[in-house]
Specification:
2 domains; Arc Repressor Mutant, subunit A; Tetracycline Repressor, domain 2; 62% helix; 209 residues; homotetramer; elongated; DNA-binding; 9 helices; 0% strand
Amino acid sequence: MSPASNHGTAAPAPPARGRPRSEAAERAILDGAMKLLEDGVPLAELSIERIARTAGVGKATIYRRWSGKEELFVDVIRAAEPEDPELPGTGLRDDLVVLLESLRQRGVASRSSALLHNVHAQMKSSPKLWAAYQANVIAPRRRLGLEVLRRGQLNGELRADVDLELANDLFVGPMLVRAVMRPESDLPEGLSEEIVDTVLAGLRPVSPP
Amino acid sequence: MSPASNHGTAAPAPPARGRPRSEAAERAILDGAMKLLEDGVPLAELSIERIARTAGVGKATIYRRWSGKEELFVDVIRAAEPEDPELPGTGLRDDLVVLLESLRQRGVASRSSALLHNVHAQMKSSPKLWAAYQANVIAPRRRLGLEVLRRGQLNGELRADVDLELANDLFVGPMLVRAVMRPESDLPEGLSEEIVDTVLAGLRPVSPP
Amino acid sequence: MSPASNHGTAAPAPPARGRPRSEAAERAILDGAMKLLEDGVPLAELSIERIARTAGVGKATIYRRWSGKEELFVDVIRAAEPEDPELPGTGLRDDLVVLLESLRQRGVASRSSALLHNVHAQMKSSPKLWAAYQANVIAPRRRLGLEVLRRGQLNGELRADVDLELANDLFVGPMLVRAVMRPESDLPEGLSEEIVDTVLAGLRPVSPP
Amino acid sequence: MSPASNHGTAAPAPPARGRPRSEAAERAILDGAMKLLEDGVPLAELSIERIARTAGVGKATIYRRWSGKEELFVDVIRAAEPEDPELPGTGLRDDLVVLLESLRQRGVASRSSALLHNVHAQMKSSPKLWAAYQANVIAPRRRLGLEVLRRGQLNGELRADVDLELANDLFVGPMLVRAVMRPESDLPEGLSEEIVDTVLAGLRPVSPP
DNA sequence: CCTTAATCGAGACGGTACGTCATGTCTTCAG
DNA sequence: CTGAAGACATGACGTACCGTCTCGATTAAGG
């Protein structure tokens, strides 16, 4: 993230001289950007100039907080992201289902919410924006998944010889492909359970003839 | 498609007066755009102006053929797609490995990888582009995969109770997720075999008899 | 003058490719700037942005011709400057009177014309603008004066031992001081003749007692 | 003068509560502005922001004392003016030479020269500034010159039929033109004498008897 | 001694203009 | 009629100042 922004990093708070930054302005900026996206403005047309006008704010007030369009969008996205799911902890299968269900919900939401729709659409056009999204949103979820799998392996609920990174992709990949890369596919209820159970069981027939 | 472009539509060839359009210019434009993408230029910075400069061509020469960045991009994709892989037909596992290996190769090659990334990037914001990619690239591969799985199910190499669409995502998803959504992950040799074998076998520990 | 501008310099005319610059746009810019000055807008508030709006022209169209505010103003000023006076050539005194009369007229005009008033006012705030004005307006007049004095010296109408540069300042200085540096002083008809005759005759009493 | 400033107006001193204004800050501001002018910064680039930075002072501290750049500048001028020259009183020629020498010195000194230039620059656009300079600097010198000339006329050192105002301009004009309007010209030693002697003697050739 | 109040440096605030760049359209000359 | 070249109006970019404001910290004089 840019040095102009300390959103998310717990800075040790320097002596704080001069007039403090207005929280109202900050909210106005994020809300304004959000509103424009919800009104269907494509991300490509979301200029800093326009956000400033909408928020009733000077451009410098934006640049003081974010070093560019991309850095701002990271925070807009973060504000729109759902919380990390809470794991039940009642076993590998249950935890995996909850994780995948969270992904599925986001996929469902991004079809109804113009905001998520728009944001996810253009995100990969910018390496910087994509990298920030990776670090701030994707990576934590990924760590959560790996942690669940590690516990499952220790408990004997998962084969000991399998690579955890690969295993994570095996569960998450099918859902992401449907949710993010194939927007025309539906995401029916029960899909999470189906994926988890099928991957755990494997696709080979049970009784070899 | 725009009326300015007759790529793909078999126009009945109007009388054709005056100087004919230069095929050299057309190739220069497509190659120039491709080169920029390969060089890592983010799609957002790929201006018509820049493509024209790179190709040594007037801007009007581009607008005469395509009505905008999107339409041009559809043709760039068409020109850069690799052939469908040939299946060995020696069994479910081998066919799946060949299919995934084809995906992996594409992710490894910088040319296809850049395309893949950028197509995914623009996908949702450009229905036209997405539809073209869908029809020309995704759909044939998908049909191929489903066909392989259907044969495997008939042969008893695949569980009979599994949904083929789901099964396809189970194999393809992990590879695509690595190739497209996590570009920092490597795609080592042997990954295709590993995915296929693990998905077929499942992740549950072998029950100790 | 800026390389972006060839106003006044007789360029050898390169092959001239691409669309030629619009004379209409050029006139609109100069007229727009002139109009704003005449309407009493101070030079300091005469932004390029505002001129472009007034002239109905893009900013780039201005920057294509002039490299900045100052270069543009040089041409605006030139357009408002009176022509070089025509010398009668009937003798030193007559020529000098005509030269000074031209200065006087300009001084009178700059009190009635808001344009000249404004332009001359702020000109010296900018070294570049002032230098350009020196080179394009002042210097030619100065050369004219020196030429007149040189001829007078050859004809025996002027003392042979006097430095021509100094002599020029002796005639021009008093008028410029009144016209430009002391705006509250009046510039009555007959002043030119009075200055020329007095400087020629000297201030010492005729018959020393 | 602005109500924000009480420089020069003998205010009846209100009860004066709170922290008194810092004289150190005031000096720092005036010195900073002076320093920037001496360093050749064009008046147009002399922003309040920059003066505050140079002086190590908050912007508000400046605006508390002066209502704008103009008002500040009036005080800068007052602080930088040299003393009136002392006249020898040994005759018209000597007094005139001393007066002109004082002007020449001012043009040579970078400090006064920078001021002179910039005052002239802003003169017409700022009636307030001009009036202040007029009253504080020009008028006394002018009165001095006229007084010298009046005495010379009474003594018979100057033609009786010449207008004193005109005579004053005849001596002062050439020097001011060189110092203010043609800064590239040098002001060599001996120039004052040369001007005085030449104007007194006139430029007409001595009539060959 | 302890308020009270105006000052200080610092810097954020909503604005306006800067000079550059890309947009898609147009207008020229050359083939 | 097409080629390239490039001018056109438009509008966003990120920076610099504008003049105002709001902070915590000084610095007197008056209670």
